[in-house]
Each structure stands twice: as C-alpha cells, then as structure tokens.
Amino acid sequence: MHYIRYFFGLIVIFYLFVSPLSYALTESGTIIKNQVGATYKDSNNITRSTASNIVETFVQPVVSVTVSADQTKFVAPSGTVRFNHIITNTGNDEDSFTLSTSLSSTAMTSIAIYPDENNDGIEDESLGIISSIGPLAPGESYHVVLLGAISPSASNGDTGTVSFTATSQSFANNATTVLSGGASSAINTDTVTVTNLPIIEMTKSMNQNEGASPSGPYVVTLSYSNVGLTDMSLTQTNGIMLSDELPVGMRFNGNVTWSLSSGIIGDISSGSVSEGDSDLSFTSCIAGAPSCLSQDKVSFTLDGLSSNQRATISFEVMIDSGLVASRLTNQVTFGYDEDNDGIVGASEQHKYKTNTVPFTITPLHAVVANTGGCGANDTACNATDNINYELMTVANAAQGSRVSFTSYIWNLGNDEDTFNLELLPSSTFPAGTSFMIYAGNGVVPLLDNDGDSKVDTGVIPAAGSTCPSYLITAAGSQCGAKVIVTATLPPGSFGGGPYFVALQATSSSDTSQSDTVGNQLTTIAQSTVDITINYPSETSSTTQNNCDNVNDGCGYGAGVEGAAVVTNTANPSTSTTFTIFITNTSTVADTYVLDFSNVIPFSSKVLTSGFTVVYTDTNGTPITNIPLLLPDESIEIRALVSIDQTVGISTENLYFKVSSPSTGAEDTVFTAVSVELINIVGPGGGGDQCLVIGTPNQSGVTQPGRATIYKHIIDNNTAETYTGVSFSLLDSEPGFTSMIYLDSNGNGEFDGNDTKIDSTVDFAPLTEVTIFLKVTVDSNVPLNTVNNSSISATVSCGDILMVDSTTVANISMRIIKEQAKDAGCDGIVDAGSAYSLNSFSVAPGECILYRLTAENIAIEDAHEVVLTDATPAFTTFKVVGGIPNIDKGSINIISDGSTGAIIGNVGTVAPGERAVMEFAIRVDD
Measuring CA to CA, which residue among 871, 885, 877 is closest to residue 920? Predict the structure, then answer.
C-alpha cells in the first residue's frame, strides 16, 4: 500500500495546511545521550578539560490516533453516499489500525470502507473492501472512503448516522501506553438526510502528488455531479459556487478548462464562458492582493446540473522555489442551490468541503562544511562559500599542546538533517596525535545521535527555517552547527609541516551528500629551555638585564657555548657550588631531568676521576629533575661539585644539561672548575608524560601513581551474531598500563565484580556490551605526559577503534553524570527510581533529571571550575521545583522550554570537595 504521511496536528480544522515531513513527536527507540564537560585550572594555573561518563535514556513507545472529520450530507433514495476520512498515526511508533463502522438507522442499508490511495476522493474499488490498515509510521496518514447505500424505501426527511472508528492494534494487542492527551481509538460520526431535491457531490484530485521545489505545472481537477433526483435550474448562473484557496507555496497558473457530460465547453481565459444554457465565471486572487495576502485563491460560479449529470473544472498550478520538504494540503469549499430556488443562498454558500489532497515537496539534501567567514559572535556567517572559507590555518603550536580548529556545518537542503562528522584518515599530523570533536563551546564532546557509531551534529533544520538558539544562523538564513576539532600533539614531535586533517560532514538522510573542510597547522614550534648561571634567562614576559644577551656571561640562549661562561676555583678535598637557573622558554608547561658531563658530544655523567656532581634545591636537598614549570617560569637550583684529595692542579670542563623527557627540549651550559693547590689553614683544612560505539574517543586527567576509568558502550544494532571478537590494546607512552574489563554485573559502573577481558567477547543481535578501560599511571611518569590508549578489534562488519587520551597532571577533577526518571515533570525523582548511571525508558512528554558531580580527587585546589552541559536532541529544558540548581557557585539563566547550554560556574574546589549541579529536560512530544 502507498501511505501518505504528514504532520497530524494540522489536519482537522481548516482546509489549507502546510505540514513538515519531519514528525514532531519523539519516535520510539530514540536514544537520548548526554555527557557533561568541565574545564578548570590546576595549582600551576594550567587550564585542563575533562568529560563525564555518558548516560542514555530510551524513548518508549506510545500510541495515539486521530480520524478526520465528521460530515453531514444530503442523500437520495436508492443512491449512494461517500464520506472521505483520514486516519493518522499520532503515536511515536509504527502501528496498525482496525477499522469499523456502525449504522444507527434504516435510511442506510450498508456501509463499506475502501482505500483512497491516489487521494482523488473516490474509492479504489479494485483494492477491495478493507477492515484494517498499516503499519503506519509515526505521523503517517491513510485516506479512506466510506461508501454507503441508501434504502430505496427511505423517505424525504429521514436521517441516519454512521460511526467510523480506528483502533490502535498496538494498544489492543500489547497494551502499549497511550500518549498523554492522545487516544488509542478515534471516532468520526457522519450524518445523512434524505431529500428529493438536487444533491451536488464534489471531489478534488491532482495529476501528481509529489514534486520538487520549484516545479510544475500540475493539473488540479474538480469533479462534481448531481446525484440527487431533481434537475437543477439551468436558467440561473449561480447554481453552484466553489472556492479553492491554494496552500502557501502553490501558485495558480491559469489554463482553466470546463467540461460537462456532453463534452468540453472549452478553455477559459477571459474569466467567463457561455455555451447555450451553460454558464461559468471565475475570479482569481493572486497572493499579495488585499483579499489574499499570502495565498492564491480561485473562485467559480456556475450553472447547476441535471440529475445524474457530471462535470469537471481543471486548472494548472506551479510549485514555488525555496520550499522546505513538507506536504501542502487543501480542500475546496463549495455550496449549491439545495432548495432549487434558482440561487445559492447565503446559508448555502461554503457549506461543504471536498476530500483533502496532499502534495509532497520532495526532500533535497545538501551540506557545506566551511570555516564560516563569520563576524564577531558568529554573526553574518557565509553558509555557501566553499572556496574562500575552505581551510582554517593555525600558524604554529607548541609541542604537546592542544590545537583547536573551528568549523561550521551548514544544512543547505530543504529538509531537516543530521550530519555525521568524521576526520578523514589522510591526516598528515604526527603519529600519536589525538583528535576530538566538540560542540561549539569547545567543552562538550559531540555524540552519536543517529546510532551509526559516528559523532554527528544532531538535527539541523532546513535552510530558511528558524534556527534554535544553540545553532548558528547564517546571513542567508541557513542553519548550521559550530564544531571544534582539537588535536592534542604528541610531546616529542616538532618542526615539519604543514600538517593537515580534513573534517567531513555527511548527510544521514542521503549519504551521497557530503563536504569537507580543511584544518591545517603550519608547523609545530619546538619547545625550548634555557639553563643559565647566576641569573634567570629573560623571556617574552619577564625582564632580566643581567641575562638577556649571549655576551652577558650567563649562558643565555641555546648552548653549548664555545668557552666556559663561569669558572669556579677550588682545592683538592673541597667543593664548589654553581648557582643555576632553569627557565621554560616555551609556550607549554614542561618538566625536566638534570644531567652533567665533562665532554662534548655530551655523554651522560662522565667526569674525571676524583670529581663528583650533585644537584640540589636551594635548601640543599639532592634532586635529579625539575617539577612542572609554566611558560616563562624559572627555578633556582645548585650544582655541588666535589674534588677529592687525589686531584692535582687541573681544569675540569663541566657541562650542565637540562632536558624534557616529554618534549625533547634541552639546553646545556658550559662551565669549568679550576683546581689549585693552596695552603691549608689549621688542622683538617677547610673550604666552601559495524558495531556502534558511543563516543569512541574520550579524554581524562589523572595523577602519577593513580588510575582513571573510561566507559565504552558497544551496540550490536544488527540481527547478526559476532563471536570471538578479540581486542588489541596499545599505549603510546611508557609508564602507562591499560586493561579492559567487562561490565559483568551490568550495572553500568566499574566495580570489583567486573572481570578483566583476557579472551574474546561475543556480541549477540540487538544487544549492547559495556566495557571499561582502566589506565594506570606509574608514579615516576612526568607531569604533562599525554598517553593515547588505543583499543581495536576487527569483525566481519568492520573495524572497531577507540582512543582514550590520558593527561598526567598534579591535579584531577572527576566528573560523574547520573540520571533519574521524572515522569510527572515536577522536579522530583519518581518513586522506584534513583540517580544512577543506568539507562531507562521514558515516554514523550516525560522528563529526565540529570545530576552532575564534580569532585577534586587530587591534593591541591582546582580553580575556575566550570561545568558545561546542553540539552540533547529531541529535548528542551524543564524549569520546575527548584530545578536547575547548583550547591556551589552559580548557573546561567535557563528558560523553561528552551534549548542550548547550561553552564555552572563553580569556582575553586578544594581536595576531596564536591560540587553538584542538577537540571531537567523534557522529551519532545
């Protein structure tokens, strides 16, 4: 069967509608995913970011149905009567419907239900009588005709009714929940009155019911006949009056033709025609005129018909350009000379309506991915320029830093769409680079909303539609999503370039439609460090007149110097001390190890016999490395050089070296010790770092000697079983140990009951498997080290790849996201529900409560902590009963029914302290 789907809420009252192809009620099985992001500054003033676990909620099926519309008609004895009805599935899941009728009088002897699949208002007898329809998709409609037989013995003035009922089979067979405000069955009541006067029956049809925007011409045909027992007066020219107000987007194109049973009267261009006693006149009002501001309207006044006489009127229409994918529907209103007194009286005009005729605007999908060309605050963006705004270039970035690229994904189609985002494998970035795709705020990771294991934009309305506040509106009224691609560079790579990675956006509705935008890093600036004697090195943000030039005798700049910058004098059996400064001259924080030698090329810890070197802090405590230094920060240390009694008069060259194990930055300063023989005064002497995966790439922060957990949900959305899937695990940096665990008890949380995966895993059809990645960091791993843990597996339907990025820092915020059901949307957790990480089902119109907990699990304060979350697709904020709230800090203003971001400014969080934010969302209905 061919079903006609259009938006149910606009069908029952007027005779003119434009309805979107998309369906407003959130469909059954939709997975609402949500994840919170957080930013904070650690005790070294370094900005960090992390993300919570993902929580999922499943939209449960609800049923509802409408039938339109009640009708009243005159009928003739021994005649037939037609009632046109439309059944619409207003639930959120596929459903079938049982159809039934009931007669209430003897005026009608029988009633039968026929399909009207070509929407011409006439029963499709060849398809036979039906008693059920379906399945219908959510929002889908089906047209039927009730064909009734009138009793030959019916008398003038007799009346009767027929009740027409459509009942949800999902409700009848499975007791599926009924939509709040909806109904599991719907009834129309049609009424007949027997008369021996004229009866005009009229239907409307189009030669095609689907086309592009723009397109045409299309032919509209109005068929009418006198099915009554009495001839109408042909001496009057207003026996029948009708009016067709075309939908917005459909235009009158003339070429009016009138034909009677006896033949075609002819084409009408002058507005009227007469042929014997047959007369017709028409007027057209084109949109923009005072009486028809937005819609074309065609009105006809014409003679009546003899009993059993038939006639048609046809004219052409065109479809406008720039229409969104939608369904244009309308009916003709008409009236006739019911009392056969020669005129259509005021009470007889516009009394009846024809069947409803839909016309579908064909969906066209298109996408542009570019850099936007936007002004301040994302204004005046260009959504169509794919030449001048095709590449975003960052001039340079430091080793181990995170580089951000901003892109815009524009929907240029005429239908709402979701665009999958994918970084193409042709990337030329250094091996070990970790990529993430974030929402426009750069904090919340984008998720997979359409269940294909690729992150996506979520739904973006069609071009020309009103854009939600969380999307960008271009100068040309297109809607777009701002996305941030981040590349965390490996600490050991520098120079080279340019480095390039392409972000591809692909329509979920039409995968042949895709576009890419380039992201380019010109080069990676090599990290640098300066080791100097007696004074710290001057930097771009500090002033040090004693050490800002290679001639200052401090070892300023890159070594090794050609001569010792400082020479200390010492005696055998004594020691001498060098005052050393280490300055981070890079733009990223770094840690360093210390070394020394007496030869160049440098060979670690090579000294002449009788010499020893020990590095200490300013308190004399021995050290071997330098803790984290921020950009332009310096630290003062000592190098204690001891000379034993066996050393004679000599000069020992000493090269003090500092190097970063993470970035490779290094510097060496040339010094020397001159050993002299002097008199001893007094005894003893003296001296001086096809399975669907929800968020495959995640990131976290932890401390040396600790572990962090990443949760991955792998869905098998197919009907196939995949057995013996073996996972491979690889860490990019030494000092990290990663292990995979299975959520053995299915509680969605990592605990002692979960088992380590040492063998293969099986994936049953239509199930999900939750795994946890535990990354343990050795206690000696330098701060600021970034490790990429890659989990991979190959199955017959394709490869699985998940990359979790762990940053080692001296501070760590743990973010936990939980959810609970609030069916009544009163801001209170339902009885039997509780905040947890687990999934559950909700119906459209119900609410979900989210609780975000940010805990400082480190030993130092976290500063400027900000929690950022947003409404998932298919939801809006619910403000009720003290929700949203935060127990520390403040929340941005949230309006009930709005969409977008919710931001909690927490401030400082002490070690062991928690901050909790709660908010609610309502599932669209």
Answer: 877
